[in-house]
Write a structure and sequence with these properties.
The complex is a heterodimer of chains A (65) and B (147).
Chain A (H helix, E strand, L loop, with lengths): L1 E8 L7 E5 L8 E4 L2 E15 L2 E10 L3
Parallel strand pairs in A: 1-5
Antiparallel strand pairs in A: 1-2, 3-4, 4-5
Chain B lengths: L3 H4 L10 H8 L2 E6 L4 E3 L7 E7 L2 E5 L8 E6 L4 E2 L2 H4 L7 E4 L4 E7 H10 L1 H25 L2
Antiparallel strand pairs in B: 1-8, 2-7, 3-6, 3-8, 4-5, 4-7
The chains are: A mainly beta (65), B alpha+beta (147).
């Protein structure tokens, strides 16, 4: 399964990112994009999978350094 | 020539056969960009669809300000941009910059792809359906950002 993941950053100040990955994102995972580190706080499956693709939205918060 | 195995990892080509993917692969050329390179510019004519095979890109809007143009989305592997060129043939809606050295893109000329869709209606229907779903996913992402 290929996971198309939309990383949504809490607060609306960061645009987030969308990317494909082979691992399903989980709450508590830390991810890096756009030069920052974020922690996933919520994973939503709003759209059903299609073919080899699953579509997820992962809400995340910046990790304070 | 671009590998069909790589195209299988791009959601807009989901549900296409190996032969159909090979026809699309024959239309692709590869480009490599480094961090900071402008790939497409807002308000320029749109002629190509881009697929990120490796690396990252940022979609930015508007004139540069004190803090620079406003990024509205970061895109990574397997994502597309420039799809509006296939849908409405309008001007580029945003500027897209590579944000990592060695960002590899597959580029498809819009006219070539439309011609292929006319020759093979199943490719046309499937890819356009998938592009609609991709745009929907991006809009949901945007809506969730402002939740």
């Amino acid at each position: 399964m290929i996971y198309q993941v939309s990383y949504v950053v809490i607060g609306g100040r960061h645009p987030g990112t969308i990317r494909n990955q082979e691992e399903r994102p989980e709450v508590g995972d830390r991810v890096e994009f756009a030069g920052q580190t974020f922690e996933i706080v919520e994973v939503l499956e709003i759209i059903p999978p299609r073919g080899d693709f699953a579509y997820l939205h992962a809400t995340c918060k910046p990790v304070e350094r | 020539m671009v590998s069909t195995d790589l195209l299988k990892q791009v959601s807009i080509f989901s549900d296409l056969s190996g032969e159909q993917l090979a026809r699309i692969a024959s239309l692709c050329r590869e480009e490599t960009h480094d961090k900071g390179d402008v790939i497409v510019r807002e308000n320029e004519p749109s002629k190509e669809l881009y697929i990120i095979q490796e690396g990252t890109a940022a979609v930015v809007l508007g004139a540069p300000s004190l803090s620079g143009p406003t990024p509205i989305l970061h895109l990574g592997k397997g994502q597309i941009f420039g799809e509006f060129s296939l849908v409405d043939r309008g001007l580029r809606s945003a500027t897209v910059n590579a944000t990592a050295d060695g960002t590899i893109l597959y580029v498809i000329d819009s006219d070539d792809f439309i011609k292929l869709c006319d020759e093979d209606n199943h490719i046309g229907y499937t890819v356009m359906r998938n592009i609609a779903a991709d745009l929907s996913f991006k809009l949901r992402h945007y809506n969730l950002t402002w939740r």
